[in-house]
Structure formats: C-alpha cells, structure tokens
Design a protein that fits this description.
By secondary structure, the chain is of the alpha+beta class. The protein has six helices and twelve strands. The protein binds zinc ion.
Length: 232
C-alpha cells in the first residue's frame, strides 16, 4: 500500500528532519528558512519578486497547518534582478556558511571549533526515495560523525552540512581505519605517471586494499594514500 503524499506530510517530514540551525530552501521559491527551536522556523531571506512573495504566504499557511510556527520579523529581501546567477550563488554560499558557523553542540560549543577533519563517515543504510514521476529510487544514507572536544558528544551531520563547515580541504582527503586517501590534482597525477610512481589509484565503491565501503564523494577520484598503521 502506498502512503498518500500530501503537501502537508511532505513539509512535515522535511521540518522534522531539520537540525537546530539547519537551513531549508524549498526548491525554486526563493525562500530561506532556518530552524530555530522545536517546531519553529525563521524566514531569513526572500527574493524580491512576486513569485517569492506569493510563495511566502503559501508556505506560511502550509507550515502553520502542520503545527509549526514561522517568524517573519527579520526577513532579508534580496534583489536578484541585477545580479548574475554566479553572484547569486556566491551570496547563497556565504549565507550557508554563516549559518553553519552558528551551529552548536548541546553543551554550547560551536561545531566550527571541532576537529572536523577527524569526522567519521558512517553508512546509515539505504532509503527509498519517491521520484517526481511516482517511481522510487534507492539511495544510500551517509552521515559524518563529529566529536565535541568539550563534552565528547558524538554528533552526526549531513554530508552537505559537514562540507560547508569543514571546507573543501576536508572533502579532498578520506580516512578509513587503515588508510588516509588524498585526492590528487591533475598536475600531481601527470607528475606521478611521468616519473613512474605507482602509489596512485582510482577509487570505486570499496577500498581496493581493505574492502571498506567508501562514501559517494570519493568514488571516481584519483588518489594517493598514506598507511595509518602497520599492517600485519
Ligand atoms: Zn559538547
């Protein structure tokens, strides 16, 4: 039996999955919400056009219909008419990074000061997703578990959120229990091939040495590696 997907239960699912301080941008509406506390979101940005203005009213009604509340007291209205898509993208990235800087552990420690490069990629199983055409697709669920340096709490983060906070550098290395993979740039690949160095491998779904399952972002990467412990 298929469950009836209504706009109400769709929005409910999204809201319930948001972390405190998490950003939600419903696709194509030009609206940005941040979850503030239990059952409460704040609209922080609205694009300055009639479509977004109308969507804002609709979304408010929808969100309130599932028992959540919306704070619209400090909405930043963004003019997008005279800026290029690239500039708009830059603005959005800056906003997302700013929001990420505000994330905190329950003990009050900012996630930004965690040793993020030690985040542990964790496979959380498969999940069925419903596609717009009604079909389904099985997708892998991953999280990155980071540890609070003050209270030792282990906090799972969405991979996208982790990338925002940890930065691009952290996405270019990947640590299994035994190896540290380091993504190579084109120039390093050429140099290694030319000088006949063989510590280079293209990754697939599993670690070619130890069989660990690798997260999607490293698959297809050309990497070198460092051994983390002596092998027996
Ligand atoms: Zn803590």
């Amino acid at each position: 039996m298929e469950e009836n997907v209504t706009p109400e239960n769709e929005v409910m699912t999204i809201l319930e999955r948001l972390r405190d301080g998490g950003l939600w941008q419903p696709a194509g509406l030009g609206l940005s919400y941040v979850k503030e506390e239990d059952k409460h979101v704040k609209l922080i940005e609205q694009e300055n056009n009639p479509m977004s203005a109308q969507a804002r009213i609709r979304m408010r009604m929808l969100i309130e219909s599932v028992g959540w509340s919306v704070d619209e007291s400090e909405v930043h209205v963004i003019d997008t008419k005279d800026i290029s898509p690239q500039e708009r993208h830059m603005q959005e990235m800056m906003m997302r990074q700013e929001i990420a800087q505000s994330w905190k552990c329950n003990c009050g420690t900012s996630l930004a000061v965690f040793e993020l490069e030690k985040g542990v990629w964790t496979f959380d199983g498969q999940q069925e997703m419903t596609l717009p055409d009604g079909g389904t697709e099985t997708v892998e669920q991953w999280s990155v578990v980071v540890e609070c340096p003050v209270c030792d709490a282990k906090i799972p983060m969405e991979p996208y959120d982790y990338g925002l906070l940890a930065g691009d550098e952290a996405m270019l290395t990947y640590r299994t229990k035994k190896l540290n993979y380091i993504a190579l740039e084109r120039i390093d690949i050429i140099r290694k091939i030319d000088s006949n160095e063989h510590d280079i491998v293209v990754l697939g779904t599993f670690c070619p040495f130890h069989g660990d399952m690798l997260p999607p972002h490293v698959r297809g990467s050309v990497v070198t590696w460092e051994t983390l412990e002596e092998e027996e």
